[in-house]
Every structure is written in C-alpha cells, then in structure tokens.
Design goal:
With 156 residues, this protein is an alpha/beta fold. The chain has one domain: Uracil-DNA glycosylase-like domain (Uracil-DNA Glycosylase, subunit E), CATH 3.40.470.10. The protein is 31% helix and 15% strand. It contains six helices and five strands; from the N terminus they run H-H-E-H-E-H-E-E-E-H-H. Strand 4 and strand 5 form a beta hairpin. The longest helix is centred in the last third of the chain and has 14 residues.
C-alpha cells in the first residue's frame, strides 16, 4: 500500500492542486427536510431533458412516491457523493441514474439494477433515464428492484 501526502501527489500533476474542504453547492435545508428519498441524475438541473423528467415522475408515481417527497440531486452541478447526501440528510433510499458507484464516492462493487442496503440506506443504480426509456429489459429490471425497494407486491 502506498502512502501519499500533498507533496508526493503534487508531483504527479502539472496543474496546481487545491484541497476542497466543503462541497461547492449545499442543498437548501428547506428542500431536504423530511425527505427520505434522494434521486441522483447525471445532468445539470438546467440540462435535465423534459422527457427524462416525465419518465422519472411516472416511475415514482408507480411506486406511490410524489416528486415533493424526493430530493433531486443534479450530479453536474451538485456534490452527489454518498457521504455528502448522508451528511446533509439521513435518506433511507438512494436511486442513481447514469452514474457508477465511484461517481457517488462508493468504493464497492455494485452492478446496475442491483438493490443493496449500505449503512442503513437502500441504494439502486440504474442506466441513464434516456437509456431506460428506450429498452424494455432495463425498464423491467428497474421496476422489479423498485418494487423491492418500496415493498410493493411483486408481480411476475
């Protein structure tokens, strides 16, 4: 195992490095209070396609969740790390569209459409919503795991 310090790491890069203490964007307290579900999408808020937003609303409605119960996290302009989300609010469920575990700060093996319980939070990673919309198999995988996550009666 290698031990790195600031000096040894700086020798690996030509650019000047900065240590970031806090996330550049914090979620507003009024947007997170009482919300136990976080949905992370690999978009900036202003770039989130309307078709993907509509699909997400339909998906959540199918599991009896209203958008008002969800904290939306836009990975392109917000910190979407698992640690950040857990520090900001104690979400019970995390649904991630279009990102790998490393992108949310998790160093674990987790495949797409594989529901896990990690540190008291159910996590489900799925393809980007545009890919889900175009593929019946992906929709089926997502639906089955959402049924488990939200404890709905499973129908084959």
């Amino acid at each position: 195992m290698f031990l790195f310090n600031k000096i040894s790491i700086s020798k690996l890069f030509e650019e000047e490095l900065y240590e970031l203490k806090d996330s550049p964007l914090k979620l507003q307290k009024d947007t997170i209070e009482g919300k136990k579900i976080a949905v992370v999408v690999d978009y900036a808020e202003e770039g989130f396609p309307e078709a993907s937003k509509d699909l997400l609303e339909k998906i959540l409605k199918a599991v009896k969740v209203d958008m008002s119960e969800v904290v939306m996290v836009y990975a392109k302009n917000q910190d979407c790390s698992f640690r950040f989300l857990r520090d900001q609010f104690h979400n019970d469920k995390l649904i991630v569209f279009g990102l790998k575990p490393a992108a949310i700060g998790l160093n674990i093996r987790l495949g797409l459409y594989q529901l896990i319980d990690f540190r008291g939070c159910q996590i489900l990673l799925a393809d980007d919503l545009t890919r889900v919309a175009q593929d019946v198999k992906r929709k089926t995988y997502l639906w089955r795991n959402l049924q488990k996550m939200f404890e709905l009666t499973l129908k084959n």
